[in-house]
Amino acid sequence: MVRGIRGATTVSQNNIDEIIVKTKEMFEEMIEKNHLQPEQVAQVIITVTHDIDAAFPARALRMIDGWMYVPVMCALEIPVPNSLPMCIRVMMTVNTATEQQEIEHVYLHGAQVLRPDLQVK
Hints:
It is a single chain. With 121 residues, this protein is α/β, with parallel strands linked by helices. The chain has helices at 16-33, 58-62; strands at residues 2-10, 41-48, 72-76, 87-95, 106-107. It has a five-stranded mixed sheet, with helices on one face. The longest helix has 18 residues, at 16-33.
């Protein structure tokens, strides 16, 4: 079965170190909570808000052992007025037998406001 796993985090500054550290933290939690192996992942799409341009967040996934061949693409999030600033969002498409309601989506730091309904797990 193909499933999507969502993740999001925020940064406080538009700088390389924070973008990479926070994105890597998010990926590691998504991988751990969903017991993922790179071979299960078809693709990863990352979007950033317009106020993040100091680094490609995809670099963070490449830093995790075994994940260098997973296809990753970065794009800009649509600039909706009053939306959450300084936000990095992820959609990971995976092959898994896990039921939809058992997927663990990860929302860290300021991004928890995007899906408070998923924070109760």
